[in-house]
Design a protein that fits this description.
By secondary structure, the protein is mainly beta. The protein contains no helices and 11 strands.
Length: 114
């Protein structure tokens, strides 16, 4: 079993920054992909960014340039640096680990005020 614990969400004004962290623990397969998804009220959950254990990244095109994903393999932790935040970035951000199956964190709320 794998556990994902997220932190770093909160309330920020438009134009501000937040950094999300997600620490994975448990029976983690060495080759995996970790990432962030988000879900706004009334919307489907969507990919924000992902990074493989080899360091290959994938971003939602609309977020490229403002958001940066990184990871520390030794700590099994993934980070999401979010800059120039906009009100439409508001939502619940979920950490995901994909290896043999998908694991999800409990979600952390990000609210961007205008």
């Amino acid at each position: 079993q794998v556990q994902l614990v997220e932190s770093g969400g909160g309330l920020v004004q438009a134009g501000g920054s937040l950094r999300l962290s997600c620490a994975a623990s448990g029976n983690i397969f060495r080759i995996n992909r970790m990432g962030w998804f988000r879900q706004a009220p009334g919307n489907q959950r969507e990919l924000v960014a992902a990074i493989t254990s080899a360091g290959m990244t994938n971003y939602a095109e609309s977020l490229r340039g403002r958001f940066t994903i990184s990871r520390d393999n030794a700590r099994n932790t993934v980070y999401l640096q979010m800059n120039s935040l906009k009100p439409e970035d508001t939502g619940v951000y979920y950490c995901n680990l994909r290896s043999i199956t998908d694991y999800w964190g409990q979600g952390t709320q990000v609210t961007v005020s205008s």
